[in-house]
Amino acid sequence: MTETTFAASEPPVEVCHLTRRFGATKALDDVSLTVPRGGVLGLIGGNGAGKTTLIKHLLGLYRPQSGTVRVFGLDPIQHPIETLSQIGYMSEDRDLPLWMRVGELLRYCQAFYSRWDMRFAEELRDAFDLGPQARVKTLSRGQRARASLLVALAYRPDLLLLDEPSAGLDPVVRRDILGAIIRTIADEGRTVIFSSHLLDEVERVADRIAIIHRGQIVLTASLDELKETHRRVTLRFDRHFDRPPELTGAISATGEDCEWTYVCSHDREQIRIAATAMGATIVGEDRLTLDEIFVSHIQG
Amino acid sequence: MRSASLALTWELLASGGWKLLGAVLVANALPILILGALRQEGVLDPQEQAIISMHVVSTMINGLVFGTALAVAAGSVSRLYCYPISSALITAGRMLPAQLLLFAEVAASTLLLNWLFGVNWPILGPALFIVSGLATFQAVAWLTGHSLWSLPAILIVGGLQSVWFVFRYRTQFTGPAHEWLEVRPMEWLTLAVFTAGAYAVALLAIQRDRRGEALRTDTLKAWLESLCERRPALKRGFPSPLAAHFWAEWHQKGVMPLITAIGLCLGLGIWLLFVRQADTLHVWVFKGGWFLPITGFVGALAIGGSGLPNGAIEMGPFLATRPLSNAELGRNLLQVVARNVCGGVILWLGACTVVIVALKLAGADSGKILPVETSNFEWWQIPAIVFGSWWTTSLLTTLLSSGRSRFVVLVIISVSLLPLIPTILGRWMLSEGARPGFRNAIGLLASGVAIVTTIWACRSAWQRRYITGTSLLAAVALATTLTAAGGIVIHQTTGWTSTSQLILTGLAAITILPVPGLPLMIAWNRHR
Amino acid sequence: MQIYISTTDGVPIYAQIVNQVKYLVASRRLKPGDELPPIRVLAERLVINPNTVARAYRELEQAGLVEKRRTAGTFVSDQGSPLARRERFRILGERVDSLLAEAGQMGISFDELSKLIEQRHTALQDLKPQRADHD
Description:
The complex is a heterotrimer of chains A (300), B (528) and C (135).
Chain A: H1 2-7, E1 13-22, E2 25-35, E3 39-44, H2 51-58, E4 66-71, H3 80-84, E5 87-90, H4 102-110, H5 118-127, H6 141-153, E6 159-163, H7 171-186, E7 191-196, H8 199-205, E8 208-213, E9 216-222, H9 223-229, E10 231-237, E11 250-256, E12 259-264, H10 268-277, E13 280-287, H11 290-299
Chain B: H1 2-41, H2 49-74, H3 87-117, H4 124-144, H5 150-166, H6 185-210, H7 218-228, H8 241-253, H9 256-275, H10 278-287, H11 291-304, H12 317-320, H13 326-362, H14 372-375, H15 381-401, H16 405-417, H17 420-428, H18 435-463, H19 469-492, H20 498-512, H21 514-526
Chain C: H1 13-26, E1 35-36, H2 39-46, H3 50-62, E2 66-69, E3 73-76, H4 82-106, H5 110-134
């Protein structure tokens, strides 16, 4: 018990120089990430970028090949009980014991968590319209996702790990899931990490963003910071260019001839100065959606 | 029309390719090897009962292997539904070429064996039978496809047909007496009816499936499900995480008592139908115990397969993220194995007792508890059955719990192939006198490996805290007791030697190997 | 209080809330003394992070549009307060800035621009009674 109380002062997730290979491919390449207590981290990346691999390391389902993983200050492989009983996890494939009935699933899961709140669980079950007699096998995709979320939430875990929680689901179920995440973080001090490639969702729900690409964390920032700093700037030059001229702070560039559009992550003033120095005028300036920021980082 | 049917045939051959060739090799390698070995030894007698049995079995294996390869090569039939061809053409296109190929393969295979070894096995009858068998198999598979009836239906139809085939070689339930040399009119008719029926059923099945309708067995299914699902509603929670987990695991994996019960009922049913002799029942119930270790393999497949619904042995994320330690998961699985084996053994011993009491009451008592005279079933076979069941179930479960299919295949292949090497060596390289000593040395080596493996497993499980001190002590104490008890028994019966003692220790070691082995393997599976 | 969030135009969500509340207050659909929904309720309704709502409320409070009353909640403040007035000037100031910048880029002088503003003002004044007739 001393360990658990000690863990309360540790950051929920601390990953240092984690590398993982599957055969010749590097699924994770020297990843370091610290997630502070409270708030929602949106882990975004394309298919096969390493999101699931990273989350599975946090659960101890993968053994780090090099580097360390700490969850609440503990190694999840050495201390499965201490870590797993504080984590709510919704797996990508919504793996649940198919033969159980929903009521049995609740009873079964209840046994593992001292903080299981049956009233909350029943409330969610009602809200999600899951009959206690229904068998998990017969549930639709959306219902299974709801059941999976239910058993990840009902003990109010300190850390909620959601791996693609809304992939392949209809808008109503997606809304349910996001609503549940929001209710979870409304309680003080709970941490949510969720991976997704539905970026409008991430933009609604996340406080912080980590972009992962080809096994590397390309960027971590708060969402506000990201939105403040990233801008699309169109410059008009006084002569023709075949390739985009270098602009300091630019992540990607598109365009032709005299007009080139850059995605920049710099201060507005600095860009203005840089543009003037190149003999160009700013003819357009826009904010970016998270979607556009993500694409520019991945392709630029 | 002709081009469409040709296209179907071509597709079958093209996608079959290497698979079909491989199947031919696999199906024929075994009889060639066995017959070759027998001829080398100079004991090949085509008239002998065992050789006729071999013909029957190898014909069926041939049909099974090549037929399966054909089915795999053909792939899912639903793929063809979107082509503009009639259901009749699909049926014929899928069944006829496969039948012709299979007929040619079986006939050629028998011809080859006849030419190589002069066994004079019949060609026409078996080939016709296998071909009509393929048709019925396809028909039943399509009729019941993707439903839970598929396996039982195939087993029942296949079983009935096999019995019919086996009876072409004999007149009673004893061993085969003669070859099936001539296909009589009645037999032609039977096979024709089988095949025609299969085509009709297949056509109906494909028409139905093409309409997108499922087999209408909902009421039957609901009834069966309610029968299987009759588990008490969970009113209260579980007292502990382990209790909850054991409940869940046992519900999925408590198969061996069920299989044993079904086996016993089946045996009794066959006895009632065909035999009805007191002595036979006595022999059957005791000798039937030898099915328990075999059941262990089936049980282990259920117990060790802890993974995803698709049957992979890799541990699924839900199970892997239960807040339980590896030690707890291992202990839990060990309990599941123990309860399975105990359930099976208790049911079997119970059945034996019932039979003995019933025989005594009926006055058909030969005066002995064990059927020693009629079948050489002696006392030592009882512990051999009990331990054999434990070994097969627990060791295979331990192996499967690793969740690493490559490792599992590697271990299974080496365990089944390694004994061949000393056997072959002993057979051809050594003189008559040196063989017992050689065999002893191999036994000692195997025991040594077992003991060292167990000690290593105990040590690493202890270092990783996958095993508690109590469990470790209990396991070691059990192994010691078994070794000592075995030594005393041997001393009383055949005479004690240090070799036999070491082999006993090896057996005791593999008996407790799952205690440290299960948590080690589970950890290896869980933390990839 | 009707607020709509869009994630397609790049405006940060907190800014969308701030702008829409400002608009609702300016158009008198929110009156002084009206209560804004609690942070959790609004977050769940809009399906957005509660911290974002909190930030929006904070900005509104700093701008003098709303005031937090201990234990009671967040209310639209009295618009006559000097803080609110200063905020209105700030908003208009920003608009004027961008108007001036655009005028500069289009090559329209300041005099022309102020003349245009005057023209538009008279036009709107003329329009007003007509619209009242329609209503």
